[in-house]
Amino acid sequence: MKIYSLVREQLVRAPLGETWAFFSNPANLKRITPPAMGFHILTPDLPQEIYAGLFIEYKVSPLLGIPITWVTEITQVEKGAVFCDEQRIGPYRIWSHMHFFRKEGRHTRMFDRVDYALPPVPLQGLINRLIVSRKLNEIFEYRYRAVEELFTD
Question: Whole-prediction pTM value?
Fold first, then answer.
């Protein structure tokens, strides 16, 4: 099994507390997800802030408009510093997304690391390179721009 990684970094033009409050509120994920993904949270009564052990169920259409169920578990939270979400049900064999936050002057430096593995399919390296990796980069580029628009000095 091959594990692929995506690493991103962004300076968020907001204080750490404001940045953490936004990213730790699961309802805000829709605001930074491309509309074409058809992202919908199915879990009722979500908390305003994530906590370790929280399960969140989504419907998302990442490819060809085909809706799939995605269930995430928040597995780690260090308030104001880091949280991790891991896929429990979804299209990946493994999905682990670490979110790191660090105060940088009056702003916040945000780091993301996604480690993922595809289901055992033929030519998975080619599928990753031509489809999955490109799609993930598009999603994170959209998120980068959305965060730039949401947080300005």
Answer: 0.94
